[in-house]
Write a structure and sequence with these properties.
about 400 residues, four-stranded mixed β-sheet, 2 domains, about 45% helix, Rossmann fold, seven-stranded parallel β-sheet, alpha/beta, Rna Polymerase Sigma Factor, Chain: A, 11 strands
């Protein structure tokens, strides 16, 4: 009996995760049929992908480029959606069996919800979906009997370590992080760090936003919140461990003191492939791990004072309700302001903390409450940008 073909949609197909996912699809063309692809800013690349992979539909969600995509594909029997509404329409198609959400940031949350409501399984790279709306999404997953497969290397590692285990016997989760490019840089130098320096990650090749999140270590904090919703452990049972080599992707400690770790080269194709082909570890020709060549693995405790963004994420999770949404949106606003060289690297956590201190938490938010919180956070931070621009 042959293996069933997966009907796959990839949101964010022109980004780092999306491109790697298409490499997996190219490696196994007999296993996948593309239903949809979406992009926000790279119209020409989306056209190239559409012509190569022949999906049933594409969406260009950005402000400029929709007409270019539509004209280029008008004779190709490919439906072309445009804008935010088109993205949500593509995400909600029920002729898809698996949707990979590789959109960056808060804009990825609603497409996750739309796909779940359509009964489509989710391979989730957009951690912000769970950071902002974890309780809402978990309730929807249960209501619609939809599976969610984590794509982040850390959460994929925990997922694999928990396979065959009783969750009640888990003592804690240990999420590893490289420490980013500034692991050994004194905090006093943070005021002078450049965008170019912050984008120079020692181990991973990622998009700009997540690379800055790695530099501030906000990414580890967001991953802690995501792990809470994925695996059901409270914040005091989730730990961060600095591991500069990025070979151990995460660990699980059990009640008897035993610890399981998942190891691999820092290559996102591996966890992407596992999420897309679960439960199979399919044969692949990606680079494999050579521990003898690496020599040794080292570990350090995280510095929460130096990397304040990570500490704020723990505080947001403890506060609960809408606070993680504020953390996420404020972080995104600050990161993009830094990338535009409007603020300094050291100011990123200050923006987040200011928004968190001003926010009145809604303890059990609806999806509308979360969307309103997103708008509130952006509005709260607008005067800061206007002051900088003046």
């Amino acid at each position: 009996m042959g293996v069933a073909i997966k009907l796959l949609t990839i949101l964010g197909s022109t980004g780092s995760i999306g491109e790697n996912a298409l490499r997996v699809v190219s490696r196994y063309p007999e296993r996948f049929s593309l239903v949809g692809l979406s992009a926000y800013s790279k119209a020409e690349r989306l056209i190239e992908q559409a012509l190569e992979f022949r999906p049933r539909a594409v969406c260009f969600a950005g402000n400029a480029g929709y007409q270019q995509v539509k004209e280029a594909l008008h004779e190709e029997n490919i439906t072309v959606y445009g804008g935010r509404d088109g993205l949500l329409e593509l995400a909600a198609r029920d002729d898809c069996s698996l949707l990979l959400n590789a959109i960056v940031g808060a804009p990825g949350m609603e497409p996750t919800v739309a796909a779940i409501r359509a009964g489509v399984d989710i391979a989730l790279s957009n951690k912000e979906s769970l950071v902002m709306a974890g309780a809402v999404i978990n309730n929807l997953l249960a209501e619609h009997q939809v599976n969610l497969y984590p794509v982040d290397s850390e959460h994929s590692a925990i997922w694999q370590c928990l396979t065959g285990e009783d969750p009640a016997q888990v003592r804690k989760l240990i999420i590893t992080g490289s420490g980013g490019p500034f692991r050994t840089v004194p905090k006093e130098q943070f005021e002078t760090l450049s965008v170019e320096e912050a984008l120079n990650h020692p181990n991973w090749n990622m998009g700009n936003k997540i690379t800055i999140d790695s530099a501030t270590m906000a990414n580890k904090g967001l991953e802690v919140i995501e792990a809470h919703w994925l695996f059901g452990l409270d914040v005091d049972r989730i730990q961060v461990l600095i591991h500069p080599q990025s070979i151990i992707h995460s660990l699980v400690e059990f009640r008897d003191g035993s610890v399981k770790a998942q190891l691999g080269v820092p290559d996102m194709k591996v966890p992407i492939q596992y999420a897309l082909m679960y439960p199979e570890h399919a044969e692949a020709d990606w680079e494999t791990l050579d521990l003898a060549a690496i020599g040794r693995l080292t570990f350090e405790a995280p510095d929460f004072e130096k990397f304040r963004c990570m500490a704020l994420a723990f505080e947001a999770l403890q506060a609960g309700g809408t606070m993680p949404a504020v953390l996420n949106v404020a972080n995104e606003s600050a990161v993009y302001a830094f990338l535009d060289e409007q603020i300094g690297f050291h100011e990123i956590p200050r923006w987040i903390e200011a928004a968190m201190e001003a926010h009145q938490v809604i303890s059990e938010p609806s999806l509308d409450d979360i969307l309103d919180t997103e708008k509130w956070t952006k509005k709260f931070l607008e005067p800061k940008l206007k002051t900088i621009d003046e």
